[in-house]
Amino acid sequence: MDIQDVEKSKVFITVEIIEYVPNSVVIKTILKKSTGNISLMSVDSGEGLTEKTSPFDTFAQVIDGEAEIVINGETKLLKIGQSIVIPAHAPNLIKPNGRFKMILTIIKSGYE
């Protein structure tokens, strides 16, 4: 599903518009603007992500499964329905606990 496949003013079920792909991490952008974007991520079992740092605050919400979020060396376990704000400039790592899906919302305004 591309950005243009998410029709505005149409109801959809977020967890159903991104699929698990064997041995893969999949990221789909729902909305992209100059002030931020909303993306979905699905991570298959056994896949990992590398530590990163963003210049912007990021809202992360687990919508399927669970994952550990490590921010500045402190680990938090997020289960389905739980969220966290990853502060701008904070080193962070998402550690999958099996397959999981999450929504990532990046807010760019306020950093001009």
Strand line-up in the sheet with most strands:
1-2-8-3-6
Give the total of beta strands: 8
What is the terminal-to-terminal distance?
32 Å
Morphology: globular
Q: Percent of residues in helical segments?
A: under 10%
What is the CATH third-level topology name? Jelly Rolls
| Major sheet summary line | 5 strands, antiparallel
CATH class: Mainly Beta
Number of domains: 1
Primary descriptors:
single chain, mainly beta, Jelly Rolls, 5-stranded antiparallel β-sheet, 3-stranded antiparallel β-sheet, 8 strands
What does this structure look like?
- The chain has 112 residues and is an all-beta fold.
- It has one domain (3-107): Jelly Rolls, CATH 2.60.120.
- Helix content is 0%, strand content 48%.
- The chain has no helices and 8 strands.
- The chain has strands at residues 25-33, 36-43, 57-64, 66-71, 74-79, 83-86, 92-96, 100-107.
- Strands 1-2-8-3-6 form a 5-stranded antiparallel sheet, with no helix packed on it.
- Strand 4 (66-71) and strand 5 form a beta hairpin.
- The radius of gyration is 14 Å and the shape is globular.
- The protein starts with 24 loop residues before the first strand and ends in a 5-residue tail after the last strand.
- The mean pLDDT is 91.
